[in-house]
Amino acid sequence: MGLDYDQLFPGRFLKAGEFGGKDVTLTVSAIELEELPQDKGGDRTRGIISFERTKKKLVLNRTNGECLKAMFGRDTGAWIGKRVTLYPMPYDGDFAIRVKGSPDLKEPLEFEMKLPRKRPVKKLLVPTGKANGTAAAPAPAAQPEAEDAPPEDHWNAVDGEQP
């Protein structure tokens, strides 16, 4: 199998095609606001999430933001140090990154997601990883020894594979 198209254009933000079709669990290290250029021109302020053990960041969309808020609360400072499991999902003829849940959840969490100009929908977030007795996503890898540490841009710290 060849490379995913997203791998042909690496950048500083996570892309669904880099996931290799797998769930990825990462630990939030920072949340900030940044002005980003839009496809149709102009700039838009977006939430940017940084993770431990990677230079790759996630541009936060409303769907993923609502999921993180449901799991960890309105105060984004409380998200720091929390683990989030992301997965690639087919969306509008391509793939998008979505939140599956977290190893930090003790039980499944169902909530009603209300997005602007859309009908409310029920969303289920699940405990992920073996730490909770589930195998929904691989458990986070142990912190590697210095000589075994992956390069800083190796963001898939969960299963040790480069997507």
Can you characterise this structure?
7% of the residues lie in helices and 34% in strands. Mean pLDDT is 80; it is low at 132-163. The chain has 163 residues and is mainly beta. It has one helix at residues 62-72, and strands spanning 24-37, 43-51, 57-59, 83-91, 94-102, 109-113, 121-127.
Radius of gyration (Å): 16 Å
What structural category arises from helix and sheet content?
mainly beta
Low-confidence runs (pLDDT<50, min 5 residues)? Answer: 132-163
Which whole number gives the mean pLDDT?
A: 80
Number of helical regions: 1
Number of strands: 7
**Quaternary state, please?**
single chain
Assess the beta-strand content as a share of residues. 25-35%
The succession of helices and strands, N to C, reads EEEHEEEE
Q: Cα distance, first to last residue? A: 12 Å
| Strands in their spatial order, largest beta sheet | 3-2-1-4-5-7-6
The percent of residues in helical segments reads: under 10%
Biggest sheet layout: 7 strands, mixed
Number of domains: 1
Q: What's the helix and strand layout?
A:
Layout: E1 24-37, E2 43-51, E3 57-59, H1 62-72, E4 83-91, E5 94-102, E6 109-113, E7 121-127
Parallel strand pairs: 5-7
Antiparallel strand pairs: 1-2, 1-4, 2-3, 4-5, 6-7
